[in-house]
Amino acid sequence: MTIPALALNDGRSIPQLGFGVFKVDPAETERIVSEALEAGYRHIDTAAVYRNEEGVGRAIAASGIPRDELFVTTKLWNDRRGAAEARGAMGESLEKLGLSHVDLYLIHWPTPANGSPVETWETLGELRAEGLTTSIGVSNFDERFLPEILETGLVPAVDQIELHPQFQQRAATALAAEHRIAIEAWGPLGQGKVDYSAGAIGEIAERLGVTWAQVVIAWHLAAGRIVFPKSNRRERMEENLAAAAVQLSADDIAAIDALDQGAAGRVSADPAEVS
Ligand code: NAD
Question: Coiled coil: which residue ranges (predicted)?
Answer without folding.
Answer: none
